[in-house]
Amino acid sequence: MRMLQHPFFDDKKILVIDQSKKITNDRTWCFWEKEPGIFEPIIHHQWQYANFFSDVYSSILDLSPYQYKMIHGIDLYSYVKQASASRTNIEWRYAIVKSVNSNTDRANVELETESFTADYIFNSILFEQPKTPKGKYYLQQHFKGWVIETKEPHFDPALATFMDFRVSQKHGTTFIYLMPTSSTCALVEYTLFTEALLEKEEYETALKDYISSYLHITDYKIVQEEFGVIPMTNMQFPLQEGRVIYTGIAGGQAKGSSGYVFQFIQKRTGQIIESLVTGNQLSIQKTWNDKKFHLYDSVLLNVLHSRKMHGDEIFSRIFQKNPPRRVLRFLDNESNLYEDLQIMRSVPSGIFLTAALQELIR
Q1: Could you report the per-residue pLDDT of 205-234, keeping only the tens digit for each?
Q2: Is 160 in contact with 47 (CB distance < 8 Å)?
Q3: N or C: which end of the chain has fewer CB within 10 A?
């Protein structure tokens, strides 16, 4: 969207390649921000208050100055296509990408039946799960979501559930998101941070149990389903290989300790646009701040991987001992050193200092 809005790109030939035409609502993005952003026209719903539940701590969180926002996938696809429809320099191509590569002065993309060269290729495809080297961690955030509708009002559309850890933790860190958009409609999402995925039936059983046991709903219909997997890892993904610029999960924009990705993609895109518009060399390097939060992510992944402390207890302590705005800044990689120290004081120093020393030595 930023490219479409800047006159610098008016005379640039842009080819957008996607595997499908994106005509169905196949996913939902939720994120938080302080001010209206570029996607404000397609925000489906937003919340200032959210529940946090666990067996040791529960509270209603006031997220201000943030708003927690939801975008439907189909709305985003349509929004971008409508914005690009009047641009004769933008072409859409629907095909499977086989590979991308770069030489000295050009980048190349190979499709099943044809290939193209360009000044730059911006690639968001993770072609295969990388092998995890020794000393690194690769968990997966995997989730199954149902949008359910009820005949009678059951939900408060002004109150979301950010995390509900009261569900079984037998597989590892496990919680429920609940995003009500009206008194009779909500997204219920079962989410896990584990190494292995579950069988399809296990996700569905967990959703059914939560809806009946915690929401006390027996009469409902499922109007939409979604499933996703996001890597949670401290492996270093390449930001750039010559004239191939990596974005999204392929560029390491998924936060290693939480899987949050949407806003990190927007920040990364902003960096790329600024470099292109100002005429600076398009070479994106990791900053000191990036390296700092990479260490923090590695420490938490160390603790979760080794089961030194359960995820529900970690997040409970953090939310219990810090205002929500500080936690959200920390999860956004925007907290300062003082705020970082306050977050660190929330969890057992023996466990986390040991993990930090292990990661520093590596």
Answers
A1: 999 999 999 999 999 999 999 999 999 999
A2: yes
A3: C
